[in-house]
Each structure stands twice: as C-alpha cells, then as structure tokens.
Amino acid sequence: MKRSSLSRIAVLSLLVASAAINVLQGARILKLERILDSRAHAGGLGVGNSVPPLELTTMSGEQARIEYASVTTPTLLYIFSPSCIWCRRNAAAIKALTTGMRSKLRVIGISLSQDGVAAFRTETGIDFPVYMPSPTTSLAYNLGETPTTILEFWCPRTV
C-alpha cells in the first residue's frame, strides 16, 4: 500500500511538473511571437515607403550614416555574412555587376558579422565599402537572411 501511494505521488508530481513546464514554454512562445509580430509591423521596407537612412559602423568602428535623398545615383546594398557559402558564391556576380556599373551605381556592402570580413573581401575580390549595421538599421531593413541585395533609388515626386 505504501509503495502504491508513493508511486501515485511520484506520478502526480511528474504530471504537475510537466504541466508547469508546458505553461512556461507556452508563455515563452507567446512572448517570442509578440516580438516577431512587432518586428514585422515595425515599419520595414515596402513599396512606396520612404527608405530610412542607414545607421552603420565602419570596420574600424566609426559611425556612419548613409542618406538617399541627397543622392541621385541608385544605391545597391549587398547584405552578406562572411561565413555564408551562398554569399561567397553570389559575390562574383555582385562584383561583375558593380564593376560594369561603377559610374552609375553607388555600392554599399553590409556584413552581418565582423568576423572574417577582411578575408571575405580578399577571397571574393569585392572592393566596395563594407559596414556593420546598427540595431535600428537591422530592424528597419529586416536584415538577417543572406545574401540579400537591395536596389534603392531616390525619385522626387512632382505634384
């Protein structure tokens, strides 16, 4: 009888612990969903939206800000990660595009990781400036998946 009572208590304790863990995990999932939902509605890029300025850091740690309204040359943003195999494979096409369009295109590289940028640039031969994004820029441009290429150009509206 004692053994049976202990078994029941143990099983009941495990069930209560399991239920508590499930509730905690559910709360964590809901919190993550709210965070992702707020990021999705944070004003990211869309057709017809004004493109926010890029808040960046140079590879030497200096702050930089890239504006669009004062530039009439289209801007190509190449977002990559030095460890990304697809970024390495895509770099040759980006280099060919930017080499052929150098006078008609402003090219800016944005690396999502500072580790390995110098080696990536040497191995791929890209020679345009490369920056690190600020958290504000990462959120506004929804940076995270690589490689990503964004072509931005400023076109004044006439009324």
Model description:
By secondary structure, the protein is an alpha/beta fold. The chain contains 4 helices and 6 strands, in the order αβββαβαβαβ. It folds into 2 domains: 1-41; 54-152, Glutaredoxin (3-Layer(aba) Sandwich). A 6-stranded mixed β-sheet has the order 2-1-5-4-3-6. The mean pLDDT is 80.
Largest sheet: 6 strands, mixed
CATH architecture of the largest domain: 3-Layer(aba) Sandwich
Shape: elongated
**Total number of distinct structural domains:** 2
Low-confidence stretches: none
Q: Calculate the mean pLDDT score and round it.
A: 80
CATH superfamily descriptor of the largest domain: Glutaredoxin
| Share in helix | 40-55%
Number of helices: 4
CATH topology annotation of the largest domain = Glutaredoxin
Using the CA coordinates, give the radius of gyration. Answer: 24 Å
- Which strand-content bin applies to the residues? 15-25%
What is the succession of H and E elements?
HEEEHEHEHE
| Distance linking N and C termini | 89 Å
Overall SS class: alpha/beta
CATH class of the largest domain: Alpha Beta
Summed up, what is this model?
This protein is an alpha/beta fold. 43% of the residues lie in helices and 19% in strands.
